[in-house]
Amino acid sequence: MYEIVKCENIFHAYHGKEENVVLQGISFSVNEKEKIAIVGKSGSGKTTLLKIIGSLIIPSGGKIIVQGNNLRSLTVPEVLEFRRKYVGFVFQDNNLIDFLTIKENIELPMKFINLPRDEREKRIEEIAEALDIKRHLYSLPKELSGGEIQRAGIGVAVANYPPLILADEPTGNLDFKTSEMVYEYFNNISEQFNSTLIIVSHDTNIKNFVDRVLDMRQINKI
Predict the structure, then answer these.
(1) Where are the domains of the chain?
(2) With respect to CATH, is domain 3-219 assigned 3.40.50.300?
(3) DSSP state of 129
(4) DSSP alpha helices (H): ranges in the chain?
(5) Would you place residue 175 in the very low, low, confident or very high pLDDT band (cuts 50, 70, 90)?
(6) Is-above-0.85 flag for pTM?
(7) What secondary structure does DSSP assign to 150-189, as a single string?
(8) Rounded to an integer, what distance in angstroms lies between the CA atom of residue 90 and that of residue 73?
């Protein structure tokens, strides 16, 4: 089975007045189309690890391979191209632009890769259908509920059909019932577009919606 993510002895430290080691000896792999949750208490390094997988942070040491790319060896232009081509991000505070409609938000990443207009329209229709947000396409983010906003954020993340979706505490601001709905939509979208899914969460209920759970207490050797 193809490994879409492979971490080998990942080490990372933030440097201020003192060195703050947050990750040490992290090693694991994620297979294509697998759904993974990374769990742990606040400050355990799970968000830092997710950012490393998505190339938002280059680790201090170790080896990180994503979709065949050695992230520590990429140039800045190559990193930007890697993100556009391979990764979709979903953040806790959403990644929507307030003054754009939901349709315009979802369409924006497609414009960055110069996707033809007819293909953009087709993709928007497919994504909106999968996430049950067709009726909100011409609404502004401020007109939506928390769960609807998060689903729209998923729509932006998958706009370019990335093979890897990374979600950082996507249900942190939502109630239990809405959180479950968002997890179901993550499953639907990853299966429909054949994406691998990695979710960072402190929600113990996440185990019911993924194939495997990685606990920071077990994989981080600090």
Answers:
(1) 3-219
(2) yes
(3) H
(4) 46-53, 76-86, 102-112, 117-131, 146-157, 176-192, 216-219
(5) confident
(6) yes
(7) HHHHHHHHTTT--SEEEEESTTTTS-HHHHHHHHHHHHHH
(8) 25
Is the model's pLDDT at 13 over the cut of 80? yes
CA 53 to chain centroid, in Å, comes to 9
- Amino acid identity of 216? M
Q: Angle of helix 102-112 relative to helix 146-157, nearest 10 degrees? A: 20
Largest CA distance in the chain: 53
Q: Which residues, listed in sequence order, are joined to residue 199 by a DSSP beta bridge?
A: 37, 167
Given pLDDT bands bounded at 50, 70 and 90, which one contains residue 205?
confident
pLDDT tens digit sequence for 113-133:
999 999 999 999 999 999 999
Condensed to tens digits (0 to 9), the pLDDT of residues 35-79 reads 999 999 888 999 999 999 999 999 999 999 999 999 999 999 999
Supply 121's token pair. Answer: 């329209």
**At residue 63, what is the residue type?**
K
Residues 173-190, buried b or exposed e (16+ Cβ, 10 A)?
A: ebeeebbbbbbebbeebb
Could you say which DSSP state residue 137 is in?
Answer: T
Question: Both tokens of residue 31?
Answer: 């297979």
C-alpha Rg value of the chain to the nearest Å: 17
Q: Which amino acid is at 211?
A: D
